[in-house]
Every structure is written in structure tokens, then in C-alpha cells.
Amino acid sequence: MRFKEFNLREAYDPQLAKKQEELVKLGYDLGPYGPKGDGVDGIMGPYTQAAIDAHSKGIKPEDAPKPNPTAVTAFNKAQGINPNSTGIGIKPDSKGIGIKPPASGLPVDGPVSSPFGYRTSVGKGHSHLGTDFAVPVGTKVFAPVDGVVSRAGDKNGAEGVYVVLDGDGVTHKFFHLSKIIADQGTKVKKGDVIALTGNTGYSTGPHLHWETHIAGQAVDPMKNIA
Ligand SMILES: [Zn+2]
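Above: the input record for the complex with zinc ion. Below: its predicted structure, written as C-alpha cells.
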């Protein structure tokens, strides 16, 4: 199987992601970017803005004002997601934010919010084993390859509702789902809908976490893999 490589970063600002990591280390509350952070690092939102403001004014983390709830609601609304969500999701076709990956080969059509290898869980000391796409809850997840759903369920843990698809020598894992469409044992064709995205497990905003493993080794899903 082959995935076309494309420019990951339009929305993602590595400088800002670094700054966010620094702020979390200092103890500032970054909401969706916090210790559970599997959200949209490297993107400016109200939480980040509030923390940056407080830090620049020399306000200690414990005294830092919370982000303005109106701003959070407005930000979420502008992205076309639930205005009351504390997480920050981004609509796949929202203008100006994010890249639109080519539909072919990818499980969802939405902006990459955290690339493979990027450390999202500050303080936990592990790498990010997959690629995150910021997409609204209920977005269809398409099988990237022909294969068999080897496992599907709800781990009630980090992964939340998950589907594992084996095909072409690659194991694909999809986490934080809201609904399983293709149950364990289902044979699927590339392009079949296997699940709907969600915000389950250790997730602080609606998104899809997609991992690819070859011989037990996690590899970057967005790289060409043969
Ligand atoms: Zn992830």
C-alpha cells in the first residue's frame, strides 16, 4: 500500500507547539493541550492565548486567569463544532485552518492536528505513535486498505472505542471512535466505512488517532510505506 506524502503543516505551527510544551511544563493550564493532550497542539486557541498572555505578564500559573468562556465558545463555533465543547475540533473543510489531505488513501479527510512522533503528552515521556486528524465526532472512517477487522471494541482506557484492521501486512489502529461500523471479523474493502470518529478514551477534543504497525513496530502512517 502507498500513501501519498503531502505537506503536513499548514495549521500546525511547530514554534507554537514548542511554546505550548514549555507552558505546560511551567504549570499553565492549556486545557486540551494539557497532560491528557491528544488534541490539537501547535494551533492557537483560547487556552493557549490565555496562557501566553499570563506568562508574558509574569502571572504565575496558579494565578493565571482561565480563558474567556465566550472566546472558547466563539472559537468552537467558528470551527463548526459543539460550542460547549472544551476540546477544540476543526471542521475538515474549515477555511484557513488546516490542510486538506487528499481523499485517496487516507481514513478521513481532515487536517492533521498532531503528526506521528510528536510528543503530545508532555510529562508522560512517550512519543506519539500515530497521526491525529481533527475532525468532528461522527466523521466516517474509511478503510485505507483491503483487510479484516481483527479487533474492535471499547477499552475504557486510553484508546476508547477502537478498531484494528489488518491488511497488506500492516496493522491499522483507530482510536477515540464513537461508533464501530465494521465489527471484529468483518472483511472490508478499501474505502468501506469501518467506524465513526469520536472523542472517547484519553482524548481532549474530537479527533481520529490512526496508527500503522509493521511487524509490531509503529511506523508513520503518513509516510509512503510499501
Ligand atoms: Zn493521537
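Notes for the reader.
The pocket of zinc ion is lined by residues 38, 114, 128, 130, 132, 209 (CB under 6 Å).
Residues 1-100 form one domain.
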